[in-house]
Specification:
349 residues, alpha/beta, Spore Coat Polysaccharide Biosynthesis Protein SpsA, Chain A, 2 domains, 41% helix, 17% strand, globular
Length: 349
């Protein structure tokens, strides 16, 4: 039987099929006395999932359970991919997206702290301990986040980092203006707080940014924290770049519009929210034009590509200058070894 923490809602059998394979206690690398659980949403993840699980098992902080939710992979790959790990808690559901898979996994966890790690990423060495110790030291925090380092398809560091760290102590305001957290596996949640705010919501108009919605709800309702250390290794590969950018932008706008009811009466908060809307619209506008420019160049439409490049420089000079500087610095870091504080490329998973 899979144990459910009191207060967590048992899923209906029609929603998810579960099976526990934690029978061999002596060989299990898990620790039932640990206060950390890890949830992995699995969808066509056979290529990297073993590397992901190995990164969890390599932590100096053991975990109580690793919960894998197969989000309706259309072919049978999980059994073979996960065969070396008979101690996993596993479940399968019809495809509903990563947010719903994370919530399904959360309902099966029993530890007071929980991390949601994507099946193509890795926990950085010592990362789980850093996050756990931060929550233990700060019982008022509902969640804590760390930095994420970018790795390539082969797992080699690129020298780049994900989003910039917050510049102030107003973390809710920072999240409104431009989220500094990505990916979800760089966060450790306090289970009681995550449950209190409603967990991961499967809202249609929040497609692809369910994590942003969770961060805002927790930050709005109480203190959160962050550490400056690298705790996650975010893998960039063709499969991680397949999201519909227009739909993603629409989802981010929807999340920030939903937040307006909580910021309207607070001038500073509302200014942060409006700044966030402006930032993301600019960010995705640049991405769309860069994509069109690359496509024109690759199809040998040189004049069109040059025209698009000039238009980009004229309209977004500061944004492009920063982006080019980040890319050059990342390439130098990859060639010479990681920079202690490499510049960061804005991104959202």
């Amino acid at each position: 039987m899979i144990s459910i923490e009191p207060g967590h809602q048992q899923m209906e059998p029609s929603q998810v099929t579960t099976h526990s394979t934690m029978s061999d206690v002596q060989r299990s690398p898990l620790d039932e006395k640990s206060d950390v659980s890890v949830v992995l949403p699995y969808f066509k993840s056979e290529a990297f999932v073993r590397e992901t699980i190995d990164s969890i098992l390599a932590q100096d902080c053991k975990v109580r359970e690793i919960v894998v939710i197969d989000d309706g992979t259309p072919y049978d790959s999980a059994d073979e991919a996960l065969a070396p790990y008979p101690f996993l808690t596993r479940a399968r559901q019809e495809n509903q997206g990563p947010g719903a898979a994370r919530q399904a996994g959360f309902l099966l966890t029993t530890a007071p702290y929980v991390c949601f790690l994507d099946c193509d990423d890795r926990i950085a060495p010592g990362g789980l301990t850093l996050l756990r110790d931060a929550l233990v030291e700060h019982p008022e925090w509902g969640m804590v986040s760390g930095r994420a380092m970018v790795i390539d398809e082969e797992g080699v560091p690129t020298g780049a980092m994900m989003l910039p760290q917050p510049e102030t102590d107003d973390l809710y305001g920072e999240l409104l203006e431009r989220t500094y957290i990505c990916p979800p596996g760089s966060v450790l949640f306090r289970s009681t707080v995550l449950e209190k705010v409603g967990g991961w919501r499967n809202v249609a108009n929040h497609w692809g940014v369910e994590d942003y919605d969770v961060y805002l709800r927790i930050a709005r309702n109480g203190p959160i924290g962050c550490v400056q250390d690298v705790v996650n290794e975010y893998r960039r590969h063709p499969g991680s770049q397949g999201q519909d950018s227009e739909r993603l932008l629409e989802s981010i706008v929807n999340v920030l519009e939903d937040e307006r009811q909580y910021t309207t009466l607070d001038w500073q908060r509302e200014q942060s929210r409006l700044a966030g809307l402006a930032y993301w619209k600019t960010e995705f506008s640049v991405r769309h034009r860069e994509h069109a420019m690359r496509k024109a160049w690759q199809s040998k439409q040189r004049l069109r590509a040059v025209g698009l490049a000039i238009a980009l420089v004229v309209r977004f000079p500061l944004r492009l200058t920063t982006s080019v500087a980040h890319r050059v610095k990342a390439k130098v870091a990859k060639r010479n070894g990681p920079d202690p504080e490499p510049e960061i490329n804005p991104a959202i998973k």
